[in-house]
Every structure is written in structure tokens, then in C-alpha cells.
Amino acid sequence: MTDSSPNPALPISRRLLCARCGTAFTCDLSGQCWCVEETIRLPMPKEGEDCLCPACLRASANTHREA
């Protein structure tokens, strides 16, 4: 039988500051994060960079689309 309870050692969500603009947002590691619903898909963040806020993700996608 598999234990389906969450692992207490892993955080379910974390409070982040956008790696580009500093806006605070929440990243939900349980799979319910805002980015799951986004149709925008980009490569992994640059080395040393963490998640982006919705506005910066969309701006980065637009930049890549125009290039």
C-alpha cells in the first residue's frame, strides 16, 4: 500500500520574489501553481535564476516570440 500523505519534509508552497522584477508571489509545489494553467512554455530559468512572476513570464515569452 502506498502512503499518499504529503511528505512533511517538502514545503507545499513557497513565497518567492520574481528573479527579474522582485514582485512577491507564491509557488505551489503541489501542482496547483498559477504557472500550471499558463499556455506559455519557456526553457528553464537562467543559471541562478528562480521562478518568474506572471508578468515577467509573459514578457519573456513575448521577447522570445519576436526573436
Q: Count the E strands.
A: 2
Query: Which strand order spans the largest sheet, edge to edge or round the barrel?
Result: 1-2
Unreliable stretches covering 5 or more consecutive residues: none
Say what oligomer this is. Answer: single chain
From N to C, what is the helix and strand string? EEH
Helix content: 10-25%
Percent of residues in beta strands? 5-15%
Cα-atom Rg, whole angstroms?
A: 14 Å
Main sheet attributes: strand count, strand direction, barrel closure: 2 strands, antiparallel
Mean pLDDT across the residues is 75
Coarse morphology: globular
Can you count the helices?
Answer: 1
The span between the termini is 51 Å
Structural class comes to alpha+beta
List the helices and strands and how they pair.
Blueprint: E1 13-17, E2 24-28, H1 54-66
Antiparallel strand pairs: 1-2
Overview of the molecule:
With 67 residues, the protein is of the alpha+beta class. It has one helix at residues 54-66, and strands spanning 13-17, 24-28. It has a domain at 13-36 and 51-66. A hairpin with a 6-residue loop joins strand 1 and strand 2 (24-28). The N and C termini lie far apart (51 Å). The mean pLDDT is 75. It holds the Pfam family Cys_rich_CWC. This is Cysteine-rich CWC.
Defining traits:
single chain, 67 residues, alpha+beta, two-stranded antiparallel sheet, 15% strand, globular, Cys_rich_CWC, Cysteine-rich CWC
Brief rundown of the structure:
By secondary structure, the chain is an alpha+beta fold. It has one helix and two strands. It comes from Afipia carboxidovorans (strain ATCC 49405 / DSM 1227 / KCTC 32145 / OM5).
